Amino acid sequence: MKPIKGKGFTLRYYQKGDEASLQKHINNNKIYRYTCQIPYPYTLKTAKQWVKDNVINNKKRNKEKVNFVIDINGKVVGGVGLFDVRPHKAEIGYWLGEKYWGQGIIPEAVKLVVDYGFSKMKLSRIYASTMKPNKQSQKVLLKVGFRKEGVMKKYYLKDGKIGDGYLFAKVK
To answer: Are strands 75-83 and 89-96 parallel, antiparallel or unpaired?
Structure first.
């Protein structure tokens, strides 16, 4: 896959050597608190396994997930991915290292990955779920053209607590 250029960053596949910068930027309780798939603390061992799994996945012809690194100066500072990929739809998820918050990186990266999903993967629906308190993520989705479709009651289990979420989607 050819890297996708954004303003001040590049989207590319994970590669060997990404482990240390991945671990450095994702190992943050402020990222963990609104995600269900990212552990905390995020260890170097976890980063190594994630990179390894993605390198293997990227060689597959029919992918069930596509994860992109948000690369700034050769370092992993965030990620955007499409997962649970079906012939016509996929879910999108994303995270960004705290040092880079508020710079417009995530809205642009999400838009680029949505465009990739619609044009290259021929998807007709991309959806996202957010925890109810995650206002920033909801703003990102609305900014890039997603519509709020509804409330998902008792959707999340996080640290032993059940919480409501919102469902957003963008269709082609």
So the answer is: antiparallel
First to last CA, the chain: 22
Counting the structural domains of the chain, the total is: 1
> Beta 65-72 vs 89-96: how paired, if at all?
unpaired
Q: Where are the alpha helices (DSSP H) in the chain?
A: 19-26, 29-32, 44-58, 105-119, 135-143
**What is the spatial distance between Cα 148 and Cα 140, in angstroms, rounded to a whole number?**
12
Please give the full DSSP string across 71-115, using - where no structure is assigned. EETTEEEEEEEEES--SSEEEEEEEE-GGGTTSSHHHHHHHHHHH
Segments forming the whole domain that contains residue 140: 4-171
Q: Does residue 76 register a pLDDT over 90? A: yes
pLDDT of residue 61 exceeding 90, the answer is no
Q: Report which DSSP code applies to 3.
A: -
| Amino acid making up residue 9 | F
Q: How many angstroms separate the CA atoms of 105 and 71, rounded?
A: 11
The CATH number of whichever domain residue 133 belongs to comes to 3.40.630.30
Give the SS3 label for residue 21. helix
Whole-model pTM: value is 0.96
Strands 125-131 and 89-96 come out as parallel
